[in-house]
Amino acid sequence: MWFLHYYEPVLNDTAIEAIERYSMKGHFADIKQACVTGIFKVLQGYDKDAHGSFIT
Predict the structure, then answer these.
(1) DSSP 6
(2) pTM, to two decimals
(3) H/E/C letters for each residue in 11-41?
């Protein structure tokens, strides 16, 4: 939860960029949720010992 709280401004910017790029007004929450789901999916199998810090 700390990760999401700390990076929420980045997630918001990413969602806003997608809304502007693809003309998807009214879908902010959906796009943001898709970003968070993608991050969680990648983190489940991420090996920091092999790949370094996820943030990097």
Answers:
(1) H
(2) 0.72
(3) HHHHHHHHHHHHCCCCCHHHHHHHHHHHHHH
- Number of Cβ within a 10 Å radius of residue 15: 21
CA-angle at 39, arms to 23 and 19, nearest 5°:
10
Structural domain boundaries enclosing 29: 2-37
User: Per this entry, what is the length of the chain?
Assistant: 56
Would 23 be classed as within a structural domain?
A: yes
Helix (H, G, I), strand (E, B) or coil at 46: coil
**Count of beta carbons in the 10 Å neighbourhood of residue 12:** 14
- Whole-number Cα distances in Å, 17 to 14, 27, 32, 51: 5, 12, 11, 28
What is the block-wise mean pLDDT of the chain (56 residues), using blocks of 10 residues? Answer: 83 94 94 90 86 72
